[in-house]
Design a protein that fits this description.
InterPro entries: DNA_S_DndD (IPR017599), P-loop_NTPase (IPR027417), Rad50/SbcC_AAA (IPR038729). This is Rad50/SbcC-type AAA domain-containing protein. It comes from Sinisalibacter aestuarii. It holds the Pfam family AAA_23. Keywords: Coiled coil. The chain is α+β, with helices and mostly antiparallel strands. Helices cover 56% and strands 16% of the residues. The chain is built from 17 helices and 16 strands. The strands form three sheets. The protein has a seven-stranded mixed beta sheet. Strand 6 and strand 7 form a beta hairpin. The protein is elongated and about 170 Å long. The C terminus is likely disordered.
Amino acid sequence: MILQSLRLINFGLYGGEHRFDLAPEPDEQKTVVLVVGHNGAGKTTFLESVRLALYGKRALGARVGQAEYERHLFKRINNFAKDRRASVELAFKSQHLGNEDLYTVRRSWAARGASVIESLEFERNGAPVEDIPSEDWNHYLEDIIPAGVSQLFFFDGEKIQDIADDQENTGLTDAIKSLLGIDILDQLRGDLALYKSRSMDRGGDTDLEGLRRDLEIAKSDLVLAEEEIGSLSVKRTQLARRSEASQKVFEQEGGSIALSRETLSEELKRVEADLTKQTNALKSLVNGVAPFALAPKLLERFSADLEKARGQQSATAIEAFVSSFQAAVGKDDKTWTKTHFAQLKDFAKTSQSNGPRMALSTEPDWVLAKLSQVADERVKVATMAAQLAELQKQRATLKDQLKNFRPGAASGAFEELKKAEFELGAVETELNRKQGEATKARALIERLERELRKSQDAVFALAKAEEKRDLATRAQAALNEYEERIVQRRLASLSKHFIEAFSGLVTRKSLVHDVIVDPNSFQLKLMGKEGREITPSELSAGERQLFAISMLWALGRTSGRELPMIIDTPLSRLDRKHRTNLMANYVPRSSAQVVMLCTDTELTPDLSKIISPYVSRRFEIGAVSGGQRTEITVLSAEADAQVLETTDAH
């Protein structure tokens, strides 16, 4: 992995937009990029921005919550940013499927009141990474450079000092565990133990034999119930036939009517009363116009004659009116002449019907109205005649029944019928009870079969879980064996790299001959000549600093990862000799790309001369405007004083 560029917009002291071109020159010897500035100029902010771009919230620690992370982002927005926005963008090259691809990760955030909205963009070769879901981009970035391993490559003077001052080597112990992957192995072992515990808890007690026994009993009860249902159904059919035969005999002997002669007599009286009532009503109808319905042709001719008679009566009335009107007008009225009256009389004569006059005792219109009722009267007569016939039939039936009535003749048939009905009812009651028992048995069988299937599945799952628990146990054993082997191999490599680095940095070359790392506690022991242990108190302050740097270098080399090295102010507590050794033997060789952050007082002219053959680019940063923003100057490697580019973002 090689860092290509870092772009900061309104991040911390870097107001406006600043860009660092970090790609080393093609010359393999020029692996170093220097970032030089006084205290408070923004060197630590540079290192923080790289971590933030790669890890986001994880850059602040594994247990940092989202609210705390957002507060941190809010504080890192430059105070002079008008739109209250900031971003960090890191471009780097890394291997992907055998190809070296250019990745760009950009984290931007904007203040919304007291909260922050963050966005992440991730590109490969200038296009968004679409083969990985956006929600997994953070995980993918951490796979490229795990956060635990990055502390071996991105570290500052404070971390070096912490390791140097730690008499118990706690910091180095954690770093060694992270390097060896012991923390991951411990987590995996813990997960396997938790899985085994939970799978045992889910096992439970399953009584398959008890369920099978209950199921067989329920099935046996159902068979017996169904057999009894079949027997009762046959018996019910036989009793139903017997009851039907008894009913017929009972009816032949007088039936239900024979049970009460008084009821029969009362019914006969009611029918005769209805007959009398209907007969009188029919007589009333035939005393009216109803008989005309028997002679429809005669009724038609009579109606025609009535119409003629009504016309003749009208003509006579007109003649009488004209004569009366003429007499009333008299001779003095010149408006009406004799001719007028003659014409009126002629009109009256022409309107008279020919034929003889019909003598009527009443008005023809009244007679015609009566005759119009004949059709309705005919319907009423027909309806009443049908009702009368039905009543006469009922009367005849009742009289026959009374005539054939013999007291006590149906009592025997009735007793037989009652007995048959009683037995039939008892059988049906028992049949219903058995059918209810069969229904319950079927429901019980269904429930037991369901429970049996679930239990069988649970037993199968239990067997599979047992198999998985066995695999988990074997995996735990394999992890233990793997840990033992990898620890031995890695610790041997770590010891070799440490001795090589430490011997090249300290002035007392023969001080440390070996380093022993306890494979269980990972505590370090420095061994001198003849196997004598060297305690940390025997090392000078500078040697302890170089001890920490050497161990970080050795850990990085032992990891086997080709990652860039970012070192922040490593020279602060070293004397001149040790600084010279560090710049000559460590910085150029620690990685294929080294970004060194140091103060202008640390990088003295003699040290600058030592490191200059390995420097591909040098940046000088300084706070301006009262320390509120940062100015970056890019210098050539050959001439420290030549200004190539100045970035002064506002």
